[in-house]
Design goal:
Chains A, B: Keywords: FAD, Flavoprotein. Chains A, B: It comes from Nguyenibacter vanlangensis. Chains A, B: This is FAD-binding oxidoreductase. The structure is a homodimer. Chain A is α+β, with helices and mostly antiparallel strands and about 375 residues long. Chain A has 3 domains: about 110 residues, Uridine Diphospho-n-acetylenolpyruvylglucosamine Reductase, domain 3, CATH 3.30.465; about 190 residues, Vanillyl-alcohol Oxidase, Chain A, domain 3 (3-Layer(aba) Sandwich), CATH 3.40.462; about 45 residues, no CATH class. Helices cover about 30% and strands about 25% of the residues of chain A. Chain A has 13 helices and 17 strands. In chain A, α11 packs across α12. Chain A is globular, with a radius of gyration of 21 Å. At the A-B interface, β6 and α5 of A face β6 and α5 of B.
Chain lengths: ~375, ~375
């Protein structure tokens, strides 16, 4: 529990230094009081700590503009306390931060983070309905690539997710695929024009901060990213999910093909963000669970279609598929900072293999 | 001359309403005093009016992030006074603004504009040298696609342009291709890391606003966009230029092929900006002028390589190639607002053809 280690260390222009245990909603409010806001946050903003987000997450609300957490410039520095006999506090800057970024705390205690923060924007939540998923996805892609429209979130949801979305289920006609947006004030009028041109129906709009501050309301970002699955699981435990990555080329065609291949089991959920120099999306499809063999088959179908799957149902960093963007030699980094392998044991398979024997042997090899 | 019609009408959050004759440097300073800045401006900011920029320009400094002036959301509304017997003031909003956007005043007097304005950023000018043009272009493309780095300008310059660039010529070793950047404060450290990783040499950096305010300095944006050619022409009138557009696919390969095809005549100058959903660039190559037959040959080579040319050496809107993004039926729009064809006569070929006869006949047809 890092929540005791909280608060803003300093704010200098467009950079903030924060303690790792700071709650993200509190942090965003503290920044807003100074005219700034978080560049990126997870759907779990109300409960997440900034350190937990960086160590365990890959992106979130804001990624449609700023890319993933690991994109250069989204994490400027971290302070890490090592798990050595005599702990050291190490400042990692720039590319060196990849040692802890998304490494689930295996490489040390992250105590402080330095992040870019944006001028506060008075965002507007919008929910737009389309007759089918393909039209919703096409509109979302179009909107995500509109460079003149400032945005924070572009999500697409299968019509079958709507019943689980309390703030929207009475406002959106049944059977419609949904696009969820957060747009800057100057973008609202042109976004409405684009919705009309593309034959969408704006079913709901609300100031994001007002929805966030009002106990009777829910900001729409709490229906997106990892919260989508959570909204379903709250009502029905027979579902699970996957995390997928669509290459920019033919992303929409691949989305349609996958949805068609598993019409009864795969409830499409897309989060748009730039990848590989183009606009693409990550999928967090909600899956009607049968058994693990069937889940393997669904994952194999993704693989065959050229869609990467970061399986959230495995324990180690490497098997989850998150290793790619990390330090190229994460186990060696862990040896430097946690020679005895005491942090999050079993989480890093490549380290366990390296160590071979219990902690003592590893420690002897290091010294 | 519209410069008497100047000043800010209002500023509400991220939207400003301005009079068309407002000088852009004065406007940007007025906005900065209120914590805002222009989303986009031309290299002629010191002398340009905002109305002139919108009526005659297609993009500029800021386009690497926000795209062209015609991208939805970059111009929210305009007020146009018609050239009818009884002039009307017409408010055009959203997509309707395309009637005047880049139409060179042929469709009416633009008197006011409504534009998104950004939170003011304390930009940093950077000039980075590379051994050759290909490396400079590759770095510029890489930097332009870095979603985590907030930027306002990414330009590439052939080494032979350097002697014409007074602020840089004594700081950059001869023979090096140049990348010119404007970066936000939080992006400076990660940009330096990227420059080092890509073996570039940071030869110059300076706060943009300080360079702009100091009579002894020049902000680097005054070496870019249309000013690049101007810097050359000030010293040598035997040059001319072209305006070209590279499709995102294989943009860098096309740049290299063109440069190789005309090694002695074509001095590459690229401005990076998003196009067709991907990152690409516009070229404003400086051309050593021989005769118009040779210039036609150079343009034909661009055409053969799939690179669009908006020829700045012709008079009419249509022949210049700027018509594509305009109203699909610009001549009909002109009939509505300027039935007698009194504004900028001869500039719109499609209208002249429609009119056929002198002004009287056209007026008769309209009434």
């Amino acid at each position: 529990d890092m929540t005791g280690l909280d608060g803003l260390v300093w704010l200098r222009g467009d950079v903030a230094r924060v303690r790792a245990g700071t709650n993200m909603l509190a942090l965003d409010r503290a920044l807003r009081a100074k005219g700034r806001e978080l560049r990126m946050f997870p759907s779990t903003k109300r409960t997440a700590t900034i350190g937990g987000f960086v160590c365990g997450g890959s992106g979130g609300i804001g990624s449609v503009t700023w890319g993933g957490l690991r994109a250069p410039g989204n994490l400027l520095a971290t302070r890490v306390v090592t798990m050595e006999d005599e702990p050291r506090a190490v400042e990692l800057r720039g590319p060196d931060t990849r040692i802890v970024n998304h490494a689930y705390g295996t490489t040390g205690f992250v105590t402080e983070l330095e992040l870019p923060v944006e001028p506060a924007v008075d965002w507007c939540d919008m929910a737009v309905a389309f007759p089918d998923l393909a039209q919703a996805a096409r509109f979302a892609h179009l909107l995500a690539t509109q460079t003149g429209l400032q945005k924070k979130l572009v999500s697409v949801m299968d019509c079958r997710l709507l019943p689980y979305f309390a703030p929207l289920r009475n406002r959106v006609p049944a059977g419609r695929a949904l696009v969820i947006l957060m747009m800057a004030p100057a973008a609202i009028e042109p976004t409405r024009a684009l919705i009309a041109r593309e034959h969408g129906e704006l079913c709901y709009s609300c100031n994001t901060a007002e929805a966030e501050d009002d106990p009777g309301h829910v900001p729409l970002y709490e229906l997106t990213w990892n919260h989508t699955t959570l909204q379903v699981l709250k009502k029905d435990r027979s579902y699970t999910y996957l995390q997928t990555g669509f290459p920019p080329a033919d992303a929409l065609a691949r989305v349609a093909a996958l949805a068609a291949q598993f019409p009864d089991e795969l409830l499409t959920h897309l989060e748009f963000l730039p990848m590989e120099g183009g606009m693409s999306c990550a999928g967090l499809p909600v899956i009607r669970f049968t058994d693990s063999a069937r889940l393997d088959k669904i994952m194999a179908a993704h693989d065959a279609a050229g869609i990467s799957v970061a399986n959230p149902h495995v324990y180690t960093i490497e098997d989850g598929g998150a290793h790619r963007g990390l330090s190229p030699d994460l186990a060696a980094d862990k040896r430097r900072f946690d020679p005895a392998g005491l942090l999050n044991p079993g989480k890093m398979r490549s380290f366990e293999a390296l160590a071979g024997a219990p902690n003592g042997a590893e420690r002897a090899a290091e010294s």
